[in-house]
Amino acid sequence: MTTFPPGTAPLLPGTSLRRAYDLASDALGDQLLRRQPVKIALWALPDYAGDEHKAVYLLGSGTFDLLYTGSTGRGVGTVRARVDEHRRDPRKAEVTWVLVLPIRRDADAEQAEGNVGRLVGRPRLSRRLPQSHRAG
């Protein structure tokens, strides 16, 4: 049996949150560094993860509520630093957990954020999602 650190929980197969995570992971394709279908409580983030400099992340509350899609990589900062910024935003006071999708350093984090946000149904606190870049 796999033991997870305190403040973390695996995303159980068949749940809506796991389906959203798998959809996002599949859409990122070879941009995704690794799958880590684990929900991380905000209080546990400093001890567990968040050092990724390029990632798409999903913030949520309760059991399955996706609230926000974001990314790192548009400057200096890690997932942990970006989540700390969100924690200071009163509009995001209900956020209790994060899912992290680390991406390659050469990936376009902003485009990946927009694509993932649209795929998971534009979480309600995501006021704007970056537009997709279209060739041609």
Structure description:
By secondary structure, this protein is an alpha+beta fold. The protein has 4 helices and 5 strands; from the N terminus they run βαβαββαβα. The protein has a 5-stranded antiparallel β-sheet with strand order 1-2-5-3-4, with helices on both faces. It is globular, with a radius of gyration of 14 Å. The model has no long low-confidence stretch (mean pLDDT 84).
* Arrangement of strands in the largest sheet: 1-2-5-3-4
Secondary-structure-derived class: alpha+beta
Task: Name the helicity range.
Answer: 25-40%
Gyration radius, in Å: 14 Å
Mean pLDDT across residues: 84
Please give the largest β-sheet. Answer: 5 strands, antiparallel
Multimeric state: single chain
Q: How would the global form be characterised?
A: globular
Task: For the record, give the distance between the C-alpha atoms at the N and C termini, rounded to a whole number.
Answer: 50 Å
* Series of H and E elements: EHEHEEHEH
Q: Enumerate how many helices there are, as a single number.
A: 4
Strand content: 15-25%
The beta-strand count equals 5
Uncertain runs: none
